[in-house]
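Troubleshooting: if your tokenizer reports a length mismatch, compare your output against this known-good record of 249 residues.
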Amino acid sequence: MASLASFDRKRGAGRPGIAGVDEAGRGPLCGPVVAGAVLLDAGFYGEAAWVRKLAGANDSKKLSPEKRSELRARIAEMHAEGKLRAVWAEASVLEISAHNILGATRMAMARCIAQLAQGPLAALFPAAGTEGELFGRTEERNILVLVDGLPLRPFAWAHESVKGGDGKSLAIALASIVAKVERDRMLVELDARYPAYGFARHKGYGTPDHIEALRRLGPCPEHRELFVRGILAGDDPPPESLDSEFSFE
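Known-good structure output:
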């Protein structure tokens, strides 16, 4: 935990704050892709009690569902108290179909940053250049946007990428928790609408029971057509769809 905060302090030295951005749900066979973003101002890292309140924060895939839920509740509480800002956004199954999963992920992430870049903070979130070429070139007066993974091209907002950032940066780790918990909640809600598929259990990933139900019942409106086409034809699911992100309970 201390190392995650130390990473942010070093990476964002001289900046007014850091916004961490991450996603959940790129690999599943159904449901939206969800992005989370958490903004921590520079003073946050100097408040030891605030940092301690988020003890245990890490890459959401490394946390149990119970720990993720606990931390998500603390993030929400601190957001309500004005100690940080936490937002999330989705890109729908229709948008995934229209823009592919990478394009839809960029859309969800951009929507998150747009929520943060409101009011007096708007000027601190610079847009990328017209070709989306501005990566890691923001001035020190601007909030540093850190995105987990590789640079996003094209993307509306200037940012820096951190490979494995959800296990290195506190801001990104918190964003990953927000995205994961919110997407899991949405899959539980989908389970109530389509109970035969077991969405509440596997969260949309390509588990054997999900594949069996899909082949037996056919897809529901929330299945990603491009993701399930091969499975319905008898192919094995792609490896990324099998990554449960430790969703099982």
